Amino acid sequence: MAKRLFDIVCAFIGLVILLPFFLLFALLIVLDSRGGVFYRQKRVGRYGKDFGLWKFRSMRPDSDKKGLLTVGGRDNRITRMGYFLRKYKIDELPQLLNVLVGDMSLVGPRPEVRKYVELYNEEQKKVLLARPGITDYASIEYVNENEILGKADDPEKVYIEEIMPAKLKLNLKYIGEMGLGTDLKIIFKTIFKVFV
Fold it and tell me: Which residues have C-beta within 8 Å of that of residue 55, sequence separation ≥ 6?
């Protein structure tokens, strides 16, 4: 209950404070490339239920039809504005709306697309018992995931066989330590990792 209250209060305050910046980013996105301001993707949430995850659009329209993974620092599907948004994780900020309505938490296992969730074993499926989050231990550890995949001969194979299991192990670690103190620690570590 304390975690949910913390999420609601922080998400509401964050949305109010960030509203002017949201409007600025929206304008820059529209001026930079054709397409909408937001991108909504179906992800798997708590108890395996699908929900629509919100992001600022950082890719050209229909880019997900060419693959679900972003590879390398210069994936040609990403717009000029998109590089900036992704570098500082600004594209993730609209997920505060997901937090407010209860689809997500500020901190929790990052929600995955159904294609990859179908590959989880029984132990890994335990991550679906927690509300997914905007950030987690795995987000901090794999902040440069795109660059790792960009160097791989077969990015999807590397993601499925190496990165995804490692991230899920960190997700399970979080579930074992879940609490307000852990969440605050992860939030501050995320901010430090992104901006320092």
Answer: 38, 39, 40, 41, 91, 92, 94, 95
Q: At what angle do helices 180-195 and 2-32 cross, to 10 degrees?
A: 20
For 7-38, how does the pLDDT look when each residue is reduced to its tens digit (9 = 90+)? Answer: 999 999 999 999 999 999 999 999 999 999 99
Query: pLDDT tens digit string along 120-165?
Result: 999 999 999 999 999 999 999 998 888 888 888 898 999 999 999 9
Could you state, in order of their start, the residue ranges of all structural domains in the chain? 2-195
Query: Which residues are registered as beta bridge partners of 107?
Result: 135
Q: Look up the pTM and report it.
A: 0.91
Burial class (CB in 10 A: 0-12, 13-18, 19+), 80: exposed
